[in-house]
Design a protein that fits this description.
Structural class: alpha+beta
Order of helices and strands: HHEEEEHEHEEEE
CATH architecture of the largest domain: Roll
Helix content: 10-25%
Largest sheet: 7 strands, mixed
Mean pLDDT: 85
Number of helices: 4
Number of domains: 2
Low-confidence stretches: 36-40
Distance between the termini: 63 Å
Shape: elongated
Oligomer: single chain
Length: about 190
Amino acid sequence: MKAKLSRIGWLSLAILFAVTGLGVGIWGFWQATHPPDASEAYISCQKDEKITEISAGGNKLEGTKLPNYTPVKQVSKLSCIDGVVGSGSTINSFNTITANYTGAMASSGVIFESSLDSGQPITVALNQVIEGWAKGLAGMQVGGTRRLMIPAEMAYGTQGSCKTVDQTDPTKCQEYAIAPNTPLVFDVSVTGSQ
């Protein structure tokens, strides 16, 4: 009788560990494959109707100043301003978006790149972009236009973005497109999401 009770006790413990381990595994998988609740994941944006999708209008935007923007010396945290609130689906960090964008240096407002110069929007997965885009565009709705103020550590950080590699040492950058530790500002107009 004592041996039977001992076997039942061990069997009960084995079942408890199996169920608990399986439960923890399922919970972990769920957390990894489902975006957090909107209240946790999305930053809150101000509204300013002066922020609208800009147009190249036949002129190249690179090297010009970002319209309706006042340069700032430092960007300490990710922030955003919605110019146009979209009415389409809500974007999360797992989406692939199609968007027009214009990027500028936060300290000068000088545009370093714009999809409008090529005349083609980009299509990109938000898990393959800089952190400032991934976190800053989450919660936005398709059809919207948002200005992102991105601190350097959520942009290209201490490495910067290299434009020309040094021919004598390919591990070094000869010319930067974006210098290390540079905060950025982006105007992004999302036209689609999947």
